Each structure stands twice: as structure tokens, then as C-alpha cells.
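Researcher: Re-running this chain for the archive, since the previous output was lost when a drive failed. Same request as before.
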Amino acid sequence: MAHVTLLERVLSPRWVQRVAIVVFGAYARAFKGLRVAGADKVPLEGPLVVACNHFSAWDPPVVGVAIPRPLDFMAKTELFAKPLQAAFMRGLGAFPVDRSRGDVGAIKEALRRLKRGRAIGVFIEGTRNAGDAEALDGAAYLAIAAGAPMTPAAVWRDGNSFRVAFGEPIQPSGRGREAASALTALTAARIRELLPQNAQNAV
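Model: Regenerated C-alpha cells:
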């Protein structure tokens, strides 16, 4: 445990996340043709939940460099199995979530970060899909519990190039399951509107 703690201190988000954004951002724009729309719609301060579709393992880093503020992601717990990899993932601002069960610890960590004014990225289908997965309410529950706006984000490929588009933030209202389901449905619809016609089944 001490060894992991030392690694996490060395690979601090204070510099790892910033360097990764600059380096991967330059790479994505030069070699992956990354283009971004609607970045001016993203609130630059305060708690924010960013809800995005998910079709590729490239999505987290691509969305992370497209958004104009640091973005923390929930990541599957398998990525934290090895000490060095775990420390690097935490350095990128990621934190683990066990997708096989309702992970209360991950939810609490997300809420702690939101209360500190961080932005949390959530893929609303819960995992990568080929367009047939139903949107889940996790992002909506976080936004409602934290009183944080929800920004819809769409990511897709145009040939070999990546595209990311952000929509207007949605202010959550109400409490409970019905409010979360309504917010999820609205956010999923906004994401579909951001996607081009041939990619609209990706959420």
C-alpha cells in the first residue's frame, strides 16, 4: 500500500493530467484529425457532469482533451489492478468503479469531486456499445444529488478523424427516480441531436 501511495504522489494529477492534455491534445489534432464544436457552451467553473455516448476506447482521452477544462472520469476497476497502472490512471484524474454492482464508493467519490467544483465525465450507456444499449440514470443521479448542470457531449468518427460536440448545459430539477429518468431521456436526446445522421444510433 505504501508503494502505491508513493507512486500516486509521484504521478500526481497536478502535473500528469495537465501534461497528458497538452501532449495527447496535440497528437489527437495532428494525427487523429480531432475537431471540436460547442466548447464555448461548457461552463468553465463549478461542478459539472458531462454525459457522453461511448463507442470506442479512444473516447475518454479524446473527450478529455476536447473539453476546455480538466475532466475526471469513472473508469472500470480492472484498469486499477496493477499499482503502476492504477497510479497513472489516478494521475489522469480517473477513479475506479465496479460495473458488476452498484458501487457506492465510486458514487461518493464522484460527489466529493463535484462538491469541490470538478467536472465528472460519465458515459451514459455505462460501457462501449454498438448503438443498442439503453442510456442509464447514473449521470442524472449525480447531477441531481450535486445540484450540478449536465452537459451533453457527443463523440464520433468521421472517416479516420474524431469529432466531439458539446451542447448547452441542462439544469437538473426535481428529485428521485422520475426526475433522473426524465433528465436521462432529455440528455440522451440532446446527444443524438449533436451526432450526425449516420451516428445517431450511438446513444
